[in-house]
Amino acid sequence: MMNSKPLLGCIADDFTGATDLANMLVRAGMRTIQTIGVPNADMFIDAEALVVALKSRTLPVQEAVDQSLAALAWLREQGCKQFFFKYCSTFDSTADGNIGPVTDALLDALGEELTIMCPAVPENGRTVYRGTLFVGDSLLNESGMEKHPLTPMKDANVLRLLEKQTDSTLGQIGYETVARGPTAVALAIAQLKSDGARMVVVDALEDAHLHAIGEACAHLKLVTGGSGIALGLPANFRRAGLLSSLKHTTHLPHHMGGSVVLAGSTSRATNGQVTLWRATRPSFRIDPLAVDRGEPVVEQAIEFFLAQTQPVLIYATSPPEEVDAVQRQLGTAKAGHLIEQTLASIARQLRMLGVNKFVVAGGETSGAVVQALEVKALRIGQQIAPGVPATQTVDGVPISLALKSGNFGRPDFFNEALRALNEGAPPASNAGDLIRSGPSKVTPT
Ligand code: ADP
What we know:
- By secondary structure, the protein is of the alpha/beta class.
- It has two domains: 8-239, Rossmann fold (3-Layer(aba) Sandwich), CATH 3.40.50; 258-442, Molybdenum Cofactor Biosythetic Enzyme, Chain A.
- Helices cover 38% and strands 19% of the residues.
- The chain is built from 16 helices and 18 strands.
- Helix 2 (61-77) runs parallel beside helix 3 and helix 13 crosses helix 14.
- It is globular.
- The two termini are 18 Å apart.
- Mean pLDDT is 91; it is low at 436-445.
- Residues 264-267, 270, 288, 316-318, 323, 326-327, 335-336, 339-340, 362-365, 405-406 line the site of adenosine-5'-diphosphate (ADP).
């Protein structure tokens, strides 16, 4: 290991966004740990990049600012040299908007005058041209994002969006400059700084642009953007001799124990994954109406699990018409909460039986499971699918998790994820082995 203190400290405004960023940093060769919220005690940190996952995107402005400042303070205590504020590649913000105020607060706390704003993630079709954000071929405000229930995006111009969120002077660097490379971008940043700009929106149409922007930002204390801009930052530390030129292997240690797949997402991709699994493998369906009637669904799921000799899928996933019917009967929020809490209780009980590998489908569902398992921090391992890495808890007895937001992954994702989490680990049957062995033991790698 080259460096005992982390180099890059990141603050992400939601959980799956944090994982996406952490995955990107691992791919670029940084050993990365993601924490769930701001750790309140001293945690043993052995990583080159830290990502604090907040849930601040839709909070009232002052709460988002306070949480982000608390995350920054913790990252500074850990010794990070550069800081990154990660928001969504579609610049998701409420009508009040947290991105501007949080960026202002972070700049003030760091005593910095300027940062860049670059939401582009070209590999996912998010590009910025003339300060305007595109999703594939569509303007952001014609991409479907204008109908988002929490953060409807009704304008595609990042500068106009920011104007509503901050009094800071804005600047812009167009793609012609970015295409000329890192020196041109660095000169443009210096010029804008002397003109008094504080937040500079930078165009990016392809990964080469992100690498150039990243290099030009080597000396900025604060960088902000989508996960894409993180592509170019690790190379700065490598050039400065602070990061090994060898990319670390990201294989996580193997450990014995049982596995389960929990699905609470109702998205199209998850429906496909559930259908494929059910064709050949054991599965248990959670009926939201049975949960509402107070039937012992958790106990039934555990019984089913113990009766099988291979990994089981426990799912609430249903096609849209069934979800609609349940939501009409129970109310959307109540139905969601009931199912999340049911899957969380199942996860907790399976953990007590010795299950230590969890594949979870659904963003909110993942949040509920991670909370139920009292996960505080995750080491990020190899990528299973774009945006979904294998992860393992950092403190205590290890738990391995693959947490995917609804629409990620190919039809066979559940098998792929189980394989990734179980690589090298001896097989365990659900009943005998687990109950006898209790919570998992670590095996040397
Ligand atoms: P995604 O990442 O696909 O959005 P989430 O887990 O974030 O998945 O959200 C899915 C929501 O739908 C959760 O609150 C979950 O509890 C709820 N849900 C899951 N299955 C059903 C169902 N059959 N009927 C109604 N709501 C459901």
